[in-house]
């Protein structure tokens, strides 16, 4: 009986996820659009994660450069350091660090916020007054996270490369212009494009998972905690899955 | 109770207009049947109280009336809409005419009182003009006697104030029907009395038909025209407050004598 119950629950959740995603895509492209709320959410996402992304990306750039330097210098290839770091940062480190931070920071926030709104019947109150809560609460948040992730990734890449430059400069007095020249030569448009598409997909998945967990939160305070937890765990997992799929696809293209 | 006159040849018959008609509604959760063949009718400008112990399905019934829950069988007719055979657009049209006051008030806690009241105006009636919004919000707050709370947040309000603001937020759309879910629960007797007065005042001013879900006997006595007692998920006991008070039903007797 327990197994039948579990299978039934999985099927019900799958159907709910399908309906949720379908409703999102229909309402995202159907007026009225929630421009004001989307801008508000974009500001909130940027504002919440700005400092954390700055510190983490700077440290990632510094540490990665410091770790790579001995290996490269052991066979006289220290001059390749900017090229190595820039490819690693733009292709993988930047989107991954930003995605994971955002999943923890505003994925959990979405889950908890919408979850507590569900528990305290605020979403029901919006529904019964005909104020289209799905568009207002879900569509605006998912669009904002999809839009903001690529912007944050560009910023994160820039900060990580700056951190890397500090270390490279301390090793062998490489100037900023030379460093930037090395970086620009080693990064292709495909790297930048794929990084931005990947980060937009990270944002979409974080938004959808966070909002789904909160919107379908169970009643009670434990439901809110569970929603926040589910939002973080599942969106982090989805980030790695998306990363692997895009990596496989890019390997075919390159 | 005001009535609707219907002219027919040489005779004039007076029929109160049916605002809500619930026929044989059943609702179960898993194996547990909560509502068993519920039947009730609410006429224009009538205050119907649904009385019952906790867990008898009162809130389930009122949630079925606004489409938050779907009954397993039976039909619910509200105004000219059959709720069991209605599409999303029609449901939204209906919801604009039905105000719902939640048990926990359900105020949007990230918004101030002013923003809470402006929210349905902006999103349903597309009113964005500041002066107009301000006038409507102040008028609704004056109706519940809380105009001084305009810039406060829900966390800064008492339980009674939250209930009143919740009622003001529904009244701002001029509903034809008001549904109150436990309007006096968790309040002291004085504040409960004030809420009861407010329910009667709302009917006078807005000409609303109301369904009040409660287990508070004094609330039922003060605001009801008619009472339906839910006992074991059934609605077999209906009548005025005084009629039900004389009922021989053991559970109801216990309820009134407690």
From TrEMBL, chain A:
The keyword Membrane applies. The chain crosses the membrane at residues 134-155, 161-180, 192-215, 227-250. GO terms for cellular component: ATP-binding cassette (ABC) transporter complex. Keywords: Membrane, Transmembrane, Transmembrane helix. It comes from the Bacteria. GO terms for molecular function: phospholipid transporter activity. This is ABC transporter permease. It comes from Chryseotalea sanaruensis. The lineage of its organism: Bacteria, Pseudomonadati, Bacteroidota, Cytophagia, Cytophagales.
From TrEMBL, chain B:
It comes from the Bacteria. One of its GO terms (molecular function) is ATP binding. Keywords: ATP-binding, Nucleotide-binding, Transport. It holds the Pfam family ABC_tran. Residues 20-257 form the ABC transporter domain. PANTHER family: PROTEIN TRIGALACTOSYLDIACYLGLYCEROL 3, CHLOROPLASTIC (PTHR43023). This is ABC transporter ATP-binding protein. It comes from Chryseotalea sanaruensis. The lineage of its organism: Bacteria, Pseudomonadati, Bacteroidota, Cytophagia, Cytophagales.
């Amino acid at each position: 009986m327990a197994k039948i119950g579990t299978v039934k629950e999985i099927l019900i959740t799958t159907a709910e996820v399908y309906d949720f995603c379908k409703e999102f895509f229909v309402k995202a492209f159907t007026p009225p659009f929630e421009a004001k709320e989307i801008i508000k959410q974009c500001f909130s996402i940027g504002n919440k994660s700005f400092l954390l992304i700055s510190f983490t990306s700077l440290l990632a750039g510094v540490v990665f450069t410091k770790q790579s330097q001995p290996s490269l210098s052991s066979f006289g290839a220290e001059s390749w350091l900017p090229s190595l770091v820039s490819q690693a940062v733009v292709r993988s480190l930047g989107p991954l660090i930003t995605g994971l931070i955002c999943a923890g920071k505003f994925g959990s926030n979405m889950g908890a916020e919408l979850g507590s709104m569900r528990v305290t019947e605020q979403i029901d109150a919006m529904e019964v007054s005909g104020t289209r809560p799905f568009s207002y609460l879900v569509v605006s948040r998912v669009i904002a996270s999809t839009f903001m992730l690529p912007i944050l990734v560009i910023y994160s890449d820039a900060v990580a490369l700056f951190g890397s430059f500090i270390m490279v400069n301390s090793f062998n007095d490489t100037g900023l212009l030379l460093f930037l020249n090395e970086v620009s030569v080693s990064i292709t448009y495909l790297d930048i494009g794929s990084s931005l598409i990947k980060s937009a997909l990270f944002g979409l998945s974080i938004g959808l998972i966070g909002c789904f967990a909160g919107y379908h939160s169970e009643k009670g305070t434990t439901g809110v905690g569970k929603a926040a937890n589910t939002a973080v765990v599942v969106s982090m997992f989805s980030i790695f899955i998306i990363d692997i799929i895009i990596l496989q696809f890019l390997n075919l293209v390159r | 109770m005001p009535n609707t006159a219907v002219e027919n040849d040489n005779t004039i018959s007076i029929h109160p207009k049916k605002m809500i008609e619930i026929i044989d509604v059943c609702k179960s959760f898993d194996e547990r049947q909560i509502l068993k063949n519920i039947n009730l009718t609410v006429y224009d400008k009538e205050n119907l109280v649904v009385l019952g112990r906790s867990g008898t399905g009162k809130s389930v019934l009122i949630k079925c009336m606004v489409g938050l829950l779907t009954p397993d069988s039976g039909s619910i007719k509200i105004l000219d809409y059959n709720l069991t055979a209605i599409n999303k657009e029609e449901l939204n049209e209906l919801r604009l005419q039905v105000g719902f006051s939640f048990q926990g008030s359900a105020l949007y806690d990230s918004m101030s009182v002013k923003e809470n009241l402006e929210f349905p105006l902006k999103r349903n009636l597309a009113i964005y003009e500041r002066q107009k919004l301000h006038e409507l919000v102040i008028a609704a707050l004056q109706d519940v006697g809380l105009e001084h709370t305009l810039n406060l947040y829900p966390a800064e309000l008492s339980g009674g104030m939250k209930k009143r603001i919740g009622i003001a937020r529904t009244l701002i759309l001029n509903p034809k029907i008001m549904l109150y879910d436990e309007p006096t629960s968790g309040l002291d007797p004085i504040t409960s009395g004030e809420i009861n007065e407010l329910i009667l005042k709302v009917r006078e001013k807005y000409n609303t038909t109301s369904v009040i879900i409660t287990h508070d006997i004094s609330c039922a006595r003060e605001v009801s025209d008619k009472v339906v007692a839910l006992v074991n998920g059934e609605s077999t006991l209906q009548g005025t407050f005084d009629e039900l008070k004389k009922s021989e039903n053991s559970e109801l007797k216990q309820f009134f004598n407690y």
